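Problem 12. The chain below contains 351 residues. Write out its predicted structure in token notation.
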Amino acid sequence: MIVTMKLGQLAEFLGAAVRGAEEKEISGLATLQEAGPGQLTFLANPQYRKYLGETKAAAVLLKAADAEGYAGDALIVPDPYLAYARISHLFDPKPKAVAGVHPTAVVAADAQVDPSASVGAFAVIESGASIGADVTVGAHCFVGARCVIGEGGWLAPRVTLYHDVRIGKRVVIQSGAVLGGEGFGFANEKGVWQKIAQIGGVCIGDDVEIGVNTAIDRGALADTRIGNGVKLDNQIQIAHNVQVGDHTAMAACVGISGSTRIGKHCTIAGGVGMVGHIDVCDNVFVTGMTMVTRSITEPGAYSSGTAMQPAAEWRKSAARIRQLDDMSKRLQQLEKRLEAVTSSGQASSEG
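Solution.
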């Protein structure tokens, strides 16, 4: 289904100023380089400004400063990328779910499914589960016993919720995600690992997004908790009893060990690892591939590891790193000798 809107309508939707033909029809979105007639584009990154004069787009979302000297039609907004984010939903071709339970779905007799909800083919809703208004449960999803999904939730096909997972309103969960799996808990008895029952649950706040193949383990005793507005990318591992504060975002392949607490408004870049039982305060940015081995108590940006360099240079650096301990010991010896010589010289001068 192709959606068509007039430039003036989009301006009204955004609260933007129109420069050009308000009646011009917009039927899609594209990048500056690829946009054609009938499509809207945006300029958010200064490095793409070189494409602005060449774009064939019907109109461009621009800041006022970037609009100077541009001859084409434009919508003037304070933040083009945010404006693009808002407009993108108007042109989203994702199929709309139809209310009702598919004939092949299996729904327990005592499960509660709101009449406005959609339950897809071969989905399973177990005993005591509650599915709220306007929720979409995709094909082949599994919703375990006593789970709760708040209104407006959207589960893509093949999402798995183990028992006692509680999900807030307007939560999006992508395919392959598993919530409420058993945490990695074992006690060692004379070299043999004895399993610890994971009897907590998982609690997800409102307006959370959880990416493809992400795993959030249930708590050992208390619940694993994900705050409101948290955004989780694909293939993230969140271990048992972790707590993530409101509006924190994590990129792909992050791994959070058990009982770690992460504050609000944090940004965790791709491939970051965190050890267990540490605290990360609010407003922390951790750069990609960083290994967080201790608590972070001050807001700011944190990094570890080494940046990319040519392989030959990296091998030399790695060799020097292996020599650091020996170099440190030699330096300490030299400092002691220097101190002895200095002390001897002072004694001679005083004599």
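Discussion. The first strand starts at residue 5 and ends at 6. Students who got a different answer should revisit the alignment rule from Section 12.3.
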